[in-house]
Write a structure and sequence with these properties.
heterodimer, A: about 80 residues, mainly alpha, globular, B: FAD/NAD(P)-binding domain, 3 domains, 7-stranded mixed beta sheet, 5-stranded parallel beta sheet, Amino_oxidase (chain B), FAD/NAD-bd_sf (chain B), oxidoreductase (chain B), Amine oxidase domain-containing protein (chain B)
């Protein structure tokens, strides 16, 4: 997956978890939580959706990498390099 | 498929709201999961039934926590629906018209707009409004997820802020009636949950009652590959060396699973799992008699406009306090909850207002009395106490005269008692709010056995679903 594809995947997961949020103006360098209402249950859902869809294991100590869209894409890029969309 | 598989990742005992919600989460994340339900239908304490051509809800008066997802911060129902991947619109919740709590000397209105209640309090109890605001702040900031098992009384906290006994009773009555398993009081965490659910967020209801909610959940669960087995009662939870290994069904079939979620209540779960589960077995003392009067026109045309009316005829100003306890009489006629499913603002797109009307009345009842009557006496006593409760509500001016002048508008009546509740849910004493002891962390003495539902201590149908989701999430992470 390329960086734009990974970004698309994350947007799809966010839309799936929080269909009531408008994501069109999402700023990739600001934390998700400052731009939408995302509690710890929702955050875990992102991790679990990634595990379900692409078998990516994300250990708890790496969660801070997932605070922003840019951080998430940076973190996932090497892990999903060989994974098709 | 002819029957359950011999092995699952997780077994869920009970197809009520907590079991279905847990099942959805587990199946969504690819667990092999089966729900085992002894009864012939889904829903548990919040089921529905068909009687003489009409469908009635067993327990649902209102869906609490009415706070649409357009309002931020999100309320618990909107958060829960995210977890279930169900959209707000699928439950088709119409907002209430308005509810009241009535006692001699004062009544308070509460709607889905908290300011209405606050202004009623300010107007009728001007010297109490500061305390009321502080109580609201305390309830809004309480840690409702604190999992300690110790009972945390609410009365003293409330009394430190509300010094007028009438206002204290007015604020306590809806909270106790809609969820306390404890006589006269309620755990502070539950008080806070109910304060938010009833006063801050308010009531809604799908036009067709609980059935569309249950159908939505079941459809979603099955679409995710979850198994649902009705008429499959569990007689025993099997364990080995302190760890659950599976269940034995009523017919002797064994199913293996490392994790079991039981929504059967603490006494029944203890009976299935044995001493190793180390669970309290008090069945909970509080139960109700509830009657349903089907009307030939909407209840508002007979003069009943409230969505829900909580009332007590006792006068706290004279020291006669609202009584929330197991009565010595078969029913306590000094208080009750009236409601009409007609009094919601139903959307035209969902079918608009109901053609027929309905009036429900719920009063505290003595479970022992109702459990031990001969069949013919039981039928007679149901009719007698049902009429007496309606008359008491009418005499207190909260109900129309459906036993007298307006009796010709009543098309049908059904009454259920603690005995009925026990028969259909397995809960001893007909204890609708379960044990007084709650297991908030869901843990038992057995590894792999978790408690969900009423006895985990969340409340109402939203609480039931949240309970299932929160314990399922623990298994998933």
């Amino acid at each position: 997956m390329t960086r734009p594809e990974i970004r698309g995947v994350i947007l799809d997961i966010l839309e799936n978890i929080a269909p009531d949020e408008d994501l069109t103006d999402l700023n990739d360098s600001d934390p998700f939580r400052e731009q939408m209402e995302l509690d710890s249950m929702d955050f875990l859902d992102i991790v679990m959706e990634l595990r379900k869809r692409y078998r990516v294991q994300i250990p708890e100590e790496d969660y801070p990498n997932l605070n922003t869209m840019n951080g998430t894409v940076d973190y996932l890029e090497p892990k999903l390099a060989d994974t098709p969309v | 498929m002819a029957g359950p598989a011999s092995q699952y990742d997780v077994l869920i005992i009970g197809a009520g709201l907590s079991g279905l919600a847990a099942g959805i989460r587990l199946a969504h994340y690819e667990k092999r999961v089966a729900i085992l339900e002894r009864h012939t239908t889904i829903g548990g304490l919040n089921s529905f039934y068909q009687l003489r051509g009409r469908r009635h809800d067993v327990g649902l008066h209102a869906v609490t926590n009415f706070r649409p997802p357009t309002l931020k911060p999100l309320g618990p129902l909107a958060k829960l629906l995210r977890q279930l991947r169900i959209s707000w619109d699928e439950f088709d919740l119409a907002p209430q018209c308005g509810s009241r709590v009535v006692m001699p000397g004062a009544s308070l209105r509460f709607t889905n707009d908290f300011d209405r209640l606050q202004s009623d309090v300010a107007e009728r109890f001007p010297d109490q409004i500061d305390g009321f605001k502080q109580l609201d702040a305390a309830a809004m900031s309480a840690d409702t997820f604190d999992e300690s098992r110790e009972f945390q009384p609410s009365r003293e906290r409330v009394r430190s802020l509300i010094t007028n006994p009438l206002l204290e009773d007015l604020l306590f009555a809806p909270v106790l009636f809609y969820g306390s398993p404890t006589p006269h009081d309620c755990d502070w965490r539950q008080f806070a949950i109910l304060w938010r659910a009833l006063y801050r967020e308010g009531f809604g209801r799908p036009r067709d009652g609980v059935k569309p909610i249950l159908k939505t959940l079941t459809k979603r669960y099955k679409a995710l590959g979850g198994d649902l087995w009705l008429r499959h009662g569990v007689q025993a939870i099997r364990s080995n060396g302190g760890k659950t290994v599976g269940v034995t069904l009523d017919d002797g079939t064994e199913i293996d699973a490392p994790h079991i979620l039981s929504s059967a209540g603490l006494p029944q779960t203890a009976a299935m799992a044995g001493d190793a589960a180390d669970l309290p077995t008090d069945p909970g003392p509080l139960s109700f008699v509830e009657s349903i009067s089907v009307l030939d026109r909407p209840a508002s045309e007979l003069g009943y406009d409230d969505t829900v009316t909580f009332y007590s005829t006792r006068d706290p100003r004279a020291g006669d306090r609202f009584r929330y306890a197991n009565p010595e009489d078969p029913c306590d006629l000094t208080s009750g909850i009236a409601c009409s499913p007609d009094n919601y603002q139903y959307f035209e797109a969902s079918g608009g207002p109901h053609d027929e009307g309905c009036l429900r009345l719920t009063v505290l009842a003595n479970p022992e009395y109702w459990a031990n009557l001969e069949p013919d006496v039981y039928t007679r006593e149901k009719a007698r106490w049902h009429a007496a409760a309606l008359d008491a509500g009418r005499d207190f001016d909260v109900l129309p005269d459906v036993t007298g002048a307006q009796a010709s508008h009543v098309l049908d009546t059904d009454v259920f008692t603690p005995k009925t509740i026990t028969r259909f849910t397995g809960h001893p004493n007909g204890a609708v709010y379960g044990s007084a002891t709650k297991i908030r962390d869901g843990r038992t003495g057995l590894d792999g056995l978790h408690v969900i539902g009423t006895d985990q201590g969340y409340l109402g149908i939203v609480g039931a679903m949240l309970s299932g989701v929160s314990i399922a999430n623990r298994l998933l992470t």
